Amino acid sequence: MFKKILIANRGEIAVRVIKTCKRMGVKTVVVYSDADAASMAVEMADEAVHIGPPAASESYLVMDKIVDAVKQTGAEAVHPGFGFLSENPEFAKRLDKEGITFIGPNPHAIEAMGDKISSKNLAAEAGVSTVPGHMGLIEDTKEAVKVSNDIGYPVMIKASAGGGGKGIRVAYNDKEVEEGFPAVKAEAKSSFGDDRIFIEKFIESPRHVEIQVMGDKHGNCVYLFERECSIQRRNQKVIEEAPSPLLDEATRKKMGEQAVALAKAVDYDSAGTVEFVASGVDKSFYFLEMNTRLQVEHPVTEMITGVDLVEQMLRVAYGEKLAIEQGDLKINGWAVESRVYAEDPYRKFLPSIGRLKRFHPPEEGALNGGTVRMDSGVREGDEISMFYDPMIAKLVTHGKDRDEALDVQAAALDRFHIEGIQDNIPFVAAVMDEERFRSGDITTKYIPEQFPDGFKGTEPTDYQTLILTAAAAYVHGVFARRAEKISGRMSEPGAQRKDWVVILGDQHYDIELELGEGEATITIDKTAHTLVSNWRPGSHLFEGHLDGEPFAVKFADKTEGYVFRHRGVSVTALVCTPTTATLHARLPEKPKPDMSKLVISPMPGLVVSMDVEVGMAVEEGEAVCIVEAMKMQNIIRAEATGTVKSVNVGAGDSVAADEVMVEFE
Ligand code: ADP
Ligand code: ADP
Ligand code: MG
């Protein structure tokens, strides 16, 4: 086996690769930019080499710097992770030329699969079902309309070089093709420097189902079953699971065998993923593209097969024969992964950056009958910068069946506490509880269909109200007792007092609290409940058993009350005496400031363009400017019609979150 390898990546995937190397006794080198100098990956690796400023184009994407780092440290091979240089055939060729092993497929396979048109043609030749459509390039709008009519609406207009959800558009009629074709062409040109376009049928009720393959340099290739990744926002995966609730045994076998046939057609010799779009209506499936690298969501496959894909990648890259045969592989239980993004689910999933004031992930290992795995590249105190992907962690859970895997995921999310930045945990936790998701009736349009007006958080159910009220009372009781001990005054309105009012959001609950040691009796609505908990001040996780049922809620002590988070619910709880509660109810509501006259930056970032000037009349919904952060350009629109009074920033300026960029009269 290799003695030392270099990881040309950062964050969670660098850490993930290091973990396997440590287990295998392989030394690791990571490269890092200025922004990652104190990162977890740097701390964990045996050696680290600085490769430049934060911008990826000046560090992680510069082949010369990676090659220099390899030579300097004497590493024998490079694992590229995903993103960055992982699917760049020039990089694989360059390493080959320098006598360094690339821990990935051969450059020809990368090249053949890197282009959607050529890979689709290859797939068709290998007997793989492809989306009905036009296999050639389309030159102009007139031809696009003709081809679309031949295929039959709806159609999908795609950039051959597309990726990451860019350069894709659905059209339902001639007019939409006339608009969409030039738009996709322009986007493809600016994003990929390649404006070749093709058109294919749009599959209705589409589900994203992909097959994990693993090949070696001796002509062997197996499939490690499927993953379903239909829960996406902006064509980016958020929740993935394995196996797929859609597939039956026969479809799974057919899909797996087609994926292997395609892999063999290009002498595929590493871990790779063949993506299909499957119809939720009749389970028909069609090849989309092949990703010639390790995939973000690979852990769900590892959890159900017991195979460490990174280990296999290292072994086959070293030249070993694949030790796994198709017949050895079995699906064991169910696994689900939530991508934890530094983003604000309440504000259209816009990126959020800043310092992780608190980062308490759930513990790995057994939980409620299942298993928890945490893949993360950050620690408490780390800075989440605007330079890289907003994904900071992956929470993976395993259970004996789908329901158990999802229950354990929800329970683990309830134990995942982050402060300092916004995170999407309330959102994914809310999805875990949705009936439609639970039933497995999902499509790639699930998020826009279920949350047409965006995510607003969920209202607590009666049971959730009960646990939140009980937890608030318990916490308050413990604080009151402590305050009494500290002040030594027996008159402190705390330990002796029994009647309290818990104000949860704007609801008042009269309760009676009898606090013992590690347990309390809480009477709500004349029913006495027993709450057992070993919660102590300072802990951000409140775990307990209410009437014997286990639960967990996240907790933060704020000056205005206690903030509790549980599943999709986020609520402030005040606990006060009945007299104070009466006064509180009489308080006039704070008037909300009128923000419609201001255009505010939703996140810290860089102003790419400012499209308005003083005196200009702007309609509601019109684009005002573009702010970029974490590789994403966000169009900021006017919330009301008006005339521009002042413009405070221009292209090239950095802005802070909530900074006023433009004011209207
Ligand atoms: P795809 O979206 O192409 O189907 P994945 O969901 O596996 O495939 O995502 C791969 C994406 O991960 C890359 O396109 C890139 O945007 C992103 N990425 C790149 N580098 C990193 C990284 N170090 N950490 C997290 N995400 C990354
Ligand atoms: P990318 O390279 O950006 O990952 P893909 O070709 O994999 O692009 O497509 C991205 C997503 O768009 C897929 O996950 C799938 O949900 C959807 N999609 C792509 N092609 C079709 C199609 N023909 N019909 C329906 N949905 C599609
Ligand atoms: Mg894709």
Description:
The protein is of the alpha+beta class and 665 residues long. It contains 17 helices and 39 strands. It has five domains: 100 residues, Rossmann fold, CATH 3.40.50.20; 70 residues, Dna Ligase, domain 1 (2-Layer Sandwich), CATH 3.30.1490; 241 residues, D-amino Acid Aminotransferase, Chain A, domain 1, CATH 3.30.470.20; 123 residues, Glycoprotein, Type 4 Pilin; 67 residues, Beta Barrel (OB fold (Dihydrolipoamide Acetyltransferase, E2P)), CATH 2.40.50. The chain has a nine-stranded antiparallel β-sheet. It has an eight-stranded antiparallel beta barrel with strand order 24-25-26-27-28-29-30-31. Strands 3-2-1-4-5 form a five-stranded parallel β-sheet, with helices on both faces. The longest helix is centred in the C-terminal third of the chain and has 26 residues. It is globular and about 80 Å long. The chain binds adenosine-5'-diphosphate (2 copies) and magnesium ion (MG).
